[in-house]
Write a structure and sequence with these properties.
Number of strands: 14
Bound molecules: pyridoxal-5'-phosphate
Distance between the termini: 46 Å
Structural class: alpha/beta
Radius of gyration: 22 Å
Helix content: 25-40%
Largest sheet: 8 strands, mixed
Oligomer: single chain
């Protein structure tokens, strides 16, 4: 079970189990970044073809990944970019409500909080468990509710929401459903055309292994057309060759589609040329084999974690489980010591929300998981074992509280 480790790194003996923070860049993408640097050192390589070819390759790769049309992909530098387009472009009326989840990743909440001065009510629903259920959302939807924004895989617990059930509910109640897929795209399959969602945003630098400062947004064309577009970027309407003409007669092009919404600087060669190479590389590896590989790594860790000493906080199995594993020593006083023990041995996991988060991807191997388990076993032998487990959150309570 070597996965694709030789296509990454060098890791120099370290184990990177923190994809939920940053995915490692494949070697082919590092080579593409170097190529982009070489173009800039000899600027005659920055041709008109490359100005349009680099973003086009990305659009095609991203569309392939989510079963969309390239002309519906908006290029971005983050997940926040798309969320701001939606929050600021929606035609809100005073008293309209946007629903978010209390404790969700901040990118999903902050763009909406600024709407309060336009009379929009932004509600952060508190889930009874770790993420909101369709039943909780159903109980919270009111006649004023216009939009719901949630993360598909919750960065701070590893729980996956029930996208289908929540999406179907939103459709039935006429609520726009916006999904942040930053912790999912690249690690699970999705066909947006068939999914009951209106918009999807994602970063490119986690499970898609791209450089930091990459992301995208997809909106169903009918939803996109209903929004106010905040800007008109010249490169979405023209090419630099157009500037050679005697005179420019500027009009808004109706056929620009999603390109009109792109982040400025779409021929961002250093990042986007490298990210394009990542997407082609991941496509070559195949999403199916990658998902199977990641799942086997999660299985291995979950099966090997000593439950006498550690509590598994993310789901053991089932549809709510993701590639983000959360766990903690039963005696939480030893959390930092465990983290440091892993870190000191060159095994990188994150500390998030009072727990440790381990998130393996295609460049990890079974040996990486075994190494982490071995270090955790050693760390636990240095901590007094305790039978008093921290109280577990309940998944069962039916309604969420408004906060
Ligand atoms: C769900 C989620 N959304 C967004 C981000 C990053 O946000 P942005 O690209 O908006 O900075 C992260 C993590 O960094 C995340 O986990």
């Amino acid at each position: 079970m070597r996965g694709w480790v030789d296509d990454f790194g060098p890791f120099e003996g370290r184990v990177w189990l923190n994809t939920a923070h940053q995915g490692a860049l494949p070697r082919v993408a590092a080579a593409a970044a170097e190529e982009a640097v070489a173009w800039k050192r000899q600027p005659w390589h920055l041709t008109t073809e490359r100005f349009s070819g680099v973003p086009q390759r990305l659009r095609v790769g991203l569309a392939r990944l989510i079963g969309a049309r390239p002309e519906d992909i908006i290029l971005a530098n983050s997940a926040s970019y798309g969320l701001h387009l939606i929050a600021n472009g929606y035609r809100w009326q005073r008293g309209d409500e946007a629903l978010t989840m209390r404790g969700d990743f901040p990118s999903d909440i902050l763009p909406f909080l600024g709407l309060a001065e336009r009379g929009v009510v932004v509600t952060q629903l508190r889930p009874a468990g770790r993420v909101l259920t369709a039943a909780e959302i159903e109980a919270a939807i009111s006649p004023s509710t216009r939009l719901l924004c949630l993360t598909w895989v919750h960065s701070l617990s590893g729980f996956t929401i029930d996208l289908e059930a929540i999406g179907r509910l939103c459709r039935a109640r006429g609520v726009i459903f916006v999904v942040n897929a930053s912790q999912a795209i690249g690690a699970r399959a999705l066909a947006v055309d068939d999914a009951p969602i209106d918009a999807l945003v994602s970063v490119g630098f986690k499970w898609l292994c791209g450089p930091y400062g990459t992301g995208f947004c997809w909106m169903r064309a009918s939803f996109r057309d209903s929004l106010i577009c905040p800007h008109t970027y010249w490169l979405s309407m023209l090419t630099s060759d157009d500037l050679a003409r005697d005179e420019l007669d500027l009009t808004l092009r109706e056929d620009a589609g999603a390109r009109r919404w792109d982040v400025f600087g779409t021929a961002n060669f250093f990042n986007f040329h490298a990210w394009g190479a990542c997407l082609d590389y991941l496509d070559g590896a195949g999403l199916g084999p990658i998902v199977a590989h990641d799942t086997a790594l999660v299985d291995r860790f979950v099966a090997g974690l000593d439950r006498e000493c550690y509590e598994l906080l993310s789901p053991e199995a089932g549809p709510a489980r993701s590639t983000l594993i959360f766990f903690a020593p039963r005696d939480r006083r030893y959390l930092d010591a465990c983290h440091q023990a892993l870190q000191a041995a060159g095994v990188h996991v994150a500390k998030r929300a009072g727990a440790l988060r381990l998130s393996p991807h295609l460049y990890n191997t079974a040996d990486d998981i075994d190494r982490a388990l071995e270090l955790l076993a050693q760390a636990s032998s240095k901590t007094p074992s305790t039978s008093t487990a921290a109280p577990k959150g309940s998944d069962a309570a039916p309604t969420a509280k408004r906060a």
